[in-house]
């Protein structure tokens, strides 16, 4: 996603906007990592319960 920059925006507003965007991206990455770890854990437990978990590597 490309941020549209208003030429009338002052430096403080631009800096604040960029910082907010960076923080939002970092939070999204952290949540994605946590979601992927949870999905991996659930998949491993499901495969193990089916008796095939020990034969499949669930590394993504």
Key traits:
single chain, 60 residues, mainly alpha, 65% helix
Mean pLDDT: 82
* Element pattern in H and E: H
Strand content: under 5%
Helix content: 55-70%
* DSSP strand count: 0
Describe this structure in words.
By secondary structure, this protein is mostly helical. The protein contains 1 helix and no strands. The longest helix is centred in the middle third of the chain and has 39 residues, at 11-49. The chain is rod-shaped and about 65 Å long. The mean pLDDT is 82.
Summarize the SSE layout with pairings:
Blueprint: H1 11-49
Give a brief outline of the structure:
By secondary structure, this protein is mainly α.
């Amino acid at each position: 996603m490309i941020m549209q920059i208003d030429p009338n925006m002052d430096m403080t507003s631009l800096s604040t906007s960029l910082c907010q965007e960076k923080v939002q991206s970092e939070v999204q990455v952290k949540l994605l990592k946590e979601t992927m770890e949870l999905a991996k854990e659930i998949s491993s437990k499901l495969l193990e319960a089916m008796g095939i978990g020990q034969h499949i590597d669930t590394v993504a």
